[in-house]
Amino acid sequence: MGTATAKKMDPVLAELVSIVGAENATNAKHIRYAYSYDLSFVEPKLPDYVVMVHNVEQIQGVLRFANREKIPVVPYTAGTNIGGLCIPERGGILMDLKRMNKIIEIDPESLVAVIEPGVSHAQLAAALYEHNLRFGWPVGPPSASVASCAISHGIGGMNARYGLQSQEITSMEVVLPTGELVRVGSCAINPDAWHSVLPLPQMDGLFKGWLGTTGVVTKLGINVHHIPPVLKIFTVSCDTVEDMYSYMLNLSNYEICDDLTAVSWWLSQVPIPYPYKPMPAGASEWFSYATTYSFTEKEREARVEIWEKVVAEEKAKGTSIQVTHYPEEALAARTKLPSQIVGSTKNYCKQGGAGISWPGTFTPAKKWAPVYNDWKKILIEHNLSPSVRMSMYRGVHYGMLRAMIPFNKQSKQETENARHAIVECLKVDLAHGGMPYKPPVDFAREINGRAHPGYLSLLKQIKALLDPNDIMNPGKLGI
Amino acid sequence: MEWHIPSLKELEHFIWRCTACGTCKVAYDYGPPSTCADICPAGTEFGFEGAMASKGKIAFARGILDGSLEWDEDLINSVYQCTICGGCQSQCQLDHKPYIPEIIEGMRREAVEAGAGPLPAHKNLVQSLKSYNNPYQGPRRLRTDWARPFKKAGQPIKDLNKESAPVMFFVGCTGAFNQASRQIPQATASVFQKLGLDFGILGENEVCCGSTAMRVGDAAEFKRIAEHNLELFAKMHKERGVNTIVSSCAGCYRAIKKDYALAADYDKLMDGIKVVHTSEFLYDLHRQGKLPLSGGLQLTVTYHDPCHIGRHLNKFIVDTEGKELWPGAYVGLDESECLYDQPRELLKAIPGVKLEEMKRVRANSYCCGGGGGVMTGFGEWATKNAGLRVAEGESTGAGVMVSTCPFCNYNLGQGAKRIGSAMQVLDLVELIDQVLPKK
Ligand SMILES: Cc1cc2nc3c(=O)[nH]c(=O)nc-3n(C[C@H](O)[C@H](O)[C@H](O)COP(=O)(O)OP(=O)(O)OC[C@H]3O[C@@H](n4cnc5c(N)ncnc54)[C@H](O)[C@@H]3O)c2cc1C
Ligand code: SF4
Ligand code: SF4
Fold first, then answer.
1. What is the average per-residue pLDDT within B344-372?
2. Mean pLDDT of chain B
């Protein structure tokens, strides 16, 4: 960038240039501007510098310097987290990791892949496909980072079977805010062993769910899985959220699905109606798709048998369940992953325009119905569609409860309207024991306001231990 | 003449449809098998999000419109570090998709109007257009140098200024003035003569198509040239019976077909005139059994889709009045005018030629790196990027990379040299010329 070579160079920039090279460090305003906003309602803020790092040594160099000078550092891979998590609260250095995109290893026998943070879902999907392997792809942009999703407790297409993306992590290499290189999991004991974080103390927890505030992950081991050849997708509809919950609970007990998800009518539309529009008369309010993979036809038949039994039981209970056709494009968007349809936000934002945010939560399944009913009221009052998704995690009766809220970001008023509705929805969910994921600062404040004092104290102690000068993505934890 | 060339402000609504999702950063296809590859030459070279695909360019547009960004050297450079290849546009699915190249060019027009753009090298180019009616500072009398061998051989090409012919071969400035590209108009004319086609050229009176002026944001210069050409074409139709304009240059073809169509009088002036690219023209003859290819070449080739006759010819279906969706909603894509199949079918029709496809083709073709004023503004980068494309071609096992644009052809040739590749870069007409017998 031109400014990097300007005659009188800013001393911070000069130091960054000496670490990453002139082509990879800048303080040019237009480059900083492009990192100042994301899809969410979070207010734009500019970093003061941007660096693109290419290796661990450069990351160490930048962090040592930033730690010495107490300059904030924000790790960034694609910035698609929908929570403003890469928008710098206090300026500083935005560290773009997209060029660290090596797939270090795919071990088809041990079913482990080792990746750098810049590896995208699209890139890994293509590479794994060559081994007939897969990962739990999220319904997000194909260009977003696998590692960032995993360390942020992301959600993917195999959550009903294997749990969250973070539960697939097998080992990690991390640069601490002080510049120290550490490893957790089996790779800490033998540099070539990336198969498991257990039975050692689970120190990977120090870097998962911390929103980039405790260090920069430089290598990640993840479990990958075979692609069984036979896919069957079960699709049903129900008139009420209660009926849908009943079906999902019943089916999840058999643990036969990779993904067990239901979406409200508004979310099944491509795109979500914006502003709110009522459902057409006679339409079902809830649709479910559940993916199940089999190695043989016989296995598929056995899975179908279970599903048919569940449907029959639900019918016998007198619920409104119907075996139905799921809108085609919406189904493709959620089962052919990674997907450009969802990735480009076509199904979410095409009508709303530029903005999208969510109350995205982990909520006990038995609270889905009451929370949804309250959310629906709040959202309709704000003239927003109650486009809600419920997904079961690993056969355990809790999971994702999330309202995808598109809005017109060109309008400050409409953005604030969405923000207000979303925060109100979040309060309802927190009251029912739900917990937001990838929380923007607005959410973090709501969480911390309710937290046990011991939780907050421990959080602060760990953060201070790892990041004594509070340089890593400061402000994001709301503490 | 009245023109509908939108200003950046007029595109503001569409600029605010971009969610910054970044899907435009990679060419990804679910498959199966799924494939993924870089699509943005600017992103590949410069890496920062602002440099990356339409996500980055739209960020600049937003910043310019909301007053956050002022024209300085860095911003100007970044706005011109884009080949306007449309690779990013192929990935996006939202309502601004049809306008992505217009948004990028809209920024450049804004820069030119503010006196900040184009780049100094582009200014020379525009000055050359003004002085010489071509971007190569080529004196008018040299424009027909490429045609000398035909005269020498006693087969002069008709001069439309003096004689009538139904087909006008619009040569284009690169073919005429760039020595390294001359074989393209020569092969085209040779093929036409072998086919016994009644065609002519404008000779020294041909002027640039104006594409380069438009791409670098100088709308005034573009309009001057385009108006001249539109009126000349209408005159040629009326006075010389021209009913088909054939172009062997993807850039000229795109300009005449798409950019000129922004003139309110386009339909009136072009009434009765068809504009076709050589690959389309020859393919039609081939389909009718009128292209008798013989002999054999024993070549393994790969085909590079030029952006300007590929995805730039997409027609976007937009619900302008909101009858189906809402006003301005992007409904779908009509690729019927994109010349993806025609060149491939012709290659396959050449006896002995084996076509091996690269990973990035058709709508996901990886730009050679020369377009959008990049070859002039950032020559070193253009060649480096072309080297990447040639390397992709090499990976197919092909020994020849075929294209259908003198601009791509030249840049890819330079790229091959840069990486020390033995890849031969040829235009489709050059191969056809080799296997088309004399009548
Ligand atoms: C339309 C849409 C749909 C989505 N659907 C899903 C979904 O189904 N499931 C899901 O999980 N997500 C979803 N997301 C969110 C997001 O796309 C994913 O979580 C994504 O993988 C995040 O990757 P990223 O590269 O954008 O991360 P970023 O946004 O760049 O980073 C995310 C967080 O990780 C931190 N970080 C980045 N790199 C590092 C590092 N190396 N070390 C430490 N911290 C780091 C950042 O500071 C930030 O806090 C969706 C997003 C969109 C736009
Ligand atoms: S241009 Fe389209 S694909 Fe690219 S970031 Fe914007 S919305 Fe996403
Ligand atoms: S038009 Fe081409 S070079 Fe320009 S941003 Fe898009 S993909 Fe990149």
1. 97
2. 97
What's the pTM? 0.97
**C-beta contacts of B321-329 below 8 A and 24+ residues apart:** B325/A351, B326/A351, B328/B13, B328/B14, B328/B95, B329/A350, B329/A351, B329/B95
- Looking at ligand 1, which atom is closest to the CA of residue A174? 42
Higher pLDDT, A325 or A10: A10
> Domain spans of chain B?
1-117, 132-287
| Cα B395 from Cα B375, distance rounded (Å) | 25
What integer is the mean pLDDT of B250-266? 97
Render the burial of B233-251: b for 16+ CB within 10 Å, e for the rest: bbebbeebbbebbbbbbbb
The whole-number pLDDT of residue A333 equals 87
Cβ separation of B34 and A351 shorter than 8 Å?
no
Token output for A328 = 């085609």
Q: Looking at this protein, which amino acid is placed at residue B411?
A: N
pLDDT for residue A199 is more than 70: yes
Nearest ligand to the CA atom of B43? 3
* The pair of three-digit structure tokens given for residue B73, joined into one six-digit string: 């050297």
State the residue for tokens 């790790």: A75
The answer to whether the Cβ–Cβ distance between B19 and A345 falls below 8 Å is: yes
pLDDT of residue A7: 55
Quick one: B93 exposed, middle or buried, by C-beta within 10 A (0-12, 13-18, 19+)? buried
Residue A446 tokens read as 């709501």
Is B56 within 8 Å of A34 when comparing Cβ atoms?
yes
CATH architecture of B132-287: 3-Layer(aba) Sandwich (3.40)
Name the percent of chain A in helix, strand, coil, to the closest 5.
35, 20, 40
A351 vs B: CB within 8 A: yes
8 Å CB contact of B50 and A34: yes
The nearest CA of chain A is from the CA of B386 a distance in Å of 20
Which atom of ligand 3 approaches the CA of B374 most closely?
3
Residue A1 confidence (pLDDT) above 80 = no
CB atoms A344 and B20 under 8 Å: no
Pocket probe mutation, ligand 2, options B55, B82, B100, B104, max atoms within 8 Å of Cβ:
B55
- Domains annotated for chain A, with CATH where assigned, are 11-96 (3.30.43.10), 103-226 (3.30.465.10), 230-439 (3.40.462.10)
Residue A2 has pLDDT above 50, yes or no: no
Mean pLDDT on A148-175: 97
Nearest atom, ligand 3, residue B53 CA: 5
The response to whether residue B91 sits with its C-beta less than 6 Å from ligand 2 reads yes
**Is cis: bond before B33, omega within 30 of 0?**
yes
B240-249 pLDDT tens trace:
999 999 999 9
**Could you tell me the distance, in angstroms and rounded to a whole number, from the CA of residue A345 to the centre of ligand 1?**
14
Place of tokens 């942009």: A141
pLDDT surpassing 90 at residue A325: no
